[in-house]
């Protein structure tokens, strides 16, 4: 919690002072009562003493003052709100290594299912685009709010070829930069890059592409998919096959995320990947903003004042 006018909270120091004054008043009252009647006669003079109820209204008033002082300081809490015009590109690796089945039922199917879940978790206002890449990047859907079009694009993902991570990042940047400016500013943009292997093709080095994204303030969240033991079956020219290991290149992806100020995630199972995308869905397209909660404290303070008045009337027949 934060406060728009924190200096007003200094008034809370007065509450302990009031408590000391109240305690002194109670001592004076007891002394006056003792002077009026001896302790032996007190039971016959006041057969029904209020006991703890004597202090109930005073306690309610103290709490009311505390709540009203906090309300005057204009308390705020930070909440995540959707960002208007925000856009994100889902950049998904569809190279041959995505056929590996170390992530059930396969890396590609797990990636597709997690992306679909991501679409249900992000704000409706968020524009989402989809790009697939192997040795050549392909934009399957420009940023849009049409979730059905995005799901249809995800269903078109197929596996083949090598990996050109740098070219894929460069293409995603170009797509995001096409968005019109408003008051001289491009809309907030981000890239979610899912890959399972090292870059083997392309004209642009991945780290150079990441630096270009950083200059444009486009963070890249990377997701390294797969396990070190993942394998695929590769056909040979003579008709036989060989087994090739395809571990994820977590080190390079971590560097890409660090350069751009994004996050580096890893996923070694379908459930891990779903959890990563679920977390991303709650973050991407939102920003932290303060929201005043003054009304709640003011209402509590007034309610406590009303309670103090009601208790005093019921127990003692006076307002306070």
Task: Itemize the secondary structure elements and their pairings.
Layout: E1 2-3, H1 14-36, H2 42-45, H3 56-72, E2 75-82, E3 87-93, H4 107-121, E4 127-133, E5 137-144, H5 147-154, H6 165-177, E6 189-195, H7 206-215, E7 220-225, E8 231-235, E9 241-245, H8 250-260, E10 264-267, H9 270-283, E11 286-292, H10 294-316
Parallel strand pairs: 3-4, 3-6, 6-7, 7-10
Antiparallel strand pairs: 1-2, 2-11, 4-5, 8-9
Radius of gyration: 33 Å
Number of helices: 10
Order of helices and strands: EHHHEEHEEHHEHEEEHEHEH
State mean pLDDT (0 to 100 scale). 83
SS-derived structural category: alpha/beta
Q: What strand order characterises the main sheet?
A: 5-4-3-6-7-10
The percent range for helix content is 40-55%
* Regions with little confidence, pLDDT below 50 for 5+ residues: none
Q: What percentage of amino acids are in beta strands? A: 15-25%
State the end-to-end distance: 33 Å
Largest sheet: number of strands, sense, barrel closure = 6 strands, mixed
Assembly type of the shown chains? single chain
The 3D shape can be described as elongated
Number of strands: 11
